[in-house]
Design goal:
The protein is 41% helix and 15% strand. The chain has 14 helices and eleven strands. The model has no long low-confidence stretch (mean pLDDT 95).
């Protein structure tokens, strides 16, 4: 399977693993890269020295491409960028910020830069900033999201019509059928998050993984648009948030409720009551925790079977 994304990253399959906070450590990233995709270390939940450790362990575990995902709102982003350069990372995905800020700096070091967007407007800005590719993330996705609430299968063709650089679809994709559908609409590859969160190699707590596999349709919600929109599972913390919204809260009150390491508490430490449980709508299709390699085989087999069936019609 060769296309612009496999050639850009030098990978076998156009499948990128989302760089999720508290989930995407070196074990997950290396497993995805070993399976033929592109693994990403999620730097958004790592101190600089922790990121360096994960990069070094990932390099020892594989001899294939991998990358790092960096939310540009991170308070010490300059330190993370320096570590990436020092450790020889060749691929960086940026998000939650202006792509102009770091794109030139990274590309001058020979690093491929991909930026995450949620609208045509931001896709055009990313292309103008000179990034090598973009991730178009629909609002079905878990974690931090765009305010536009544009679905993935609406976003992909509208963005594809406006830009020339490769497009990676994200949000609501976890199967071979979903991958094929995204590519039919114009995507050159897909980024998958939630399906890889519920794997043996994910660094998420087992409580969180077990919760993912029982999530049903309607069990997640996009909230906190006043700060940074995020899709959460409707647990007790979410109910507290909804109760606060009934009081017409200020941004300061919302920040106060969030200022207790909620994402780490829920995803990494397994507190299903007080934690912030970030996952996408596609979790409703996830029924079992599996190794990355098995998931890859299932996705590629289904992709090829459905593609072959369509060709026979």
């Amino acid at each position: 399977m060769t296309n612009r994304i496999t050639e850009l990253f030098n990978i076998k399959y156009p499948i990128i693993q989302g760089g999720m906070v508290w989930v995407s450590g070196w074990k997950l990233a290396s497993a995805v890269s070993n399976a033929g995709g592109l693994g990403l270390i999620g730097a958004g939940s790592m101190y600089p020295d922790v990121l360096r450790e994960h990069i070094q362990k990932c390099k020892k575990a594989i001899n294939k491409p991998f990358g790092v995902n960096i939310p540009m709102l991170y308070p010490e982003v300059d330190k993370l960028m320096d570590i990436i350069v020092e450790e020889g990372v060749k691929i960086v995905f940026t998000s939650a910020g202006n792509p102009k800020t770091w794109t030139s700096f990274l590309q001058e070091k020979g690093i491929i830069v991909v930026h995450v967007v949620s609208s045509v407007k931001f896709a055009l800005k990313a292309e103008a900033a000179g990034v090598d590719a973009i991730v178009c993330e629909g609002f079905e996705a878990g974690g931090h999201n765009g305010r536009e609430e544009t679905t993935t299968f609406t976003l992909i063709p509208t963005v594809k019509a406006e830009i020339k650089i490769p497009v990676i679809a994200a949000g609501g994709i976890a199967t071979g059928k979903g991958m094929l559908a995204a590519m039919v609409l114009g995507a050159d590859g897909v980024q998958i998050g939630s399906r890889f969160a519920a794997t043996e190699e994910s660094s998420a707590h087992i409580n969180f993984k077990n919760t993912i596999v029982v999530v049903k349709e309607g069990d997640t919600c996009l909230t906190l648009k006043e700060l940074a929109p995020v899709r959460l599972i409707k647990n007790e913390f979410y109910k507290k948030l909804e109760k606060l919204y009934q009081q017409n809260p200020t941004e300061e009150q919302l920040k106060e409720l969030l200022s207790k390491g909620r994402a780490k508490k829920g995803i990494f430490e397994g507190d299903l009551i007080e934690g912030e449980l970030e996952i996408g709508q596609i979790a409703a299709l996830i029924e079992e925790i599996k190794p990355v390699k098995i998931i890859f085989d299932e996705i590629i087999d289904e992709f090829n079977q459905v593609k072959s069936f369509i060709h026979k019609l």
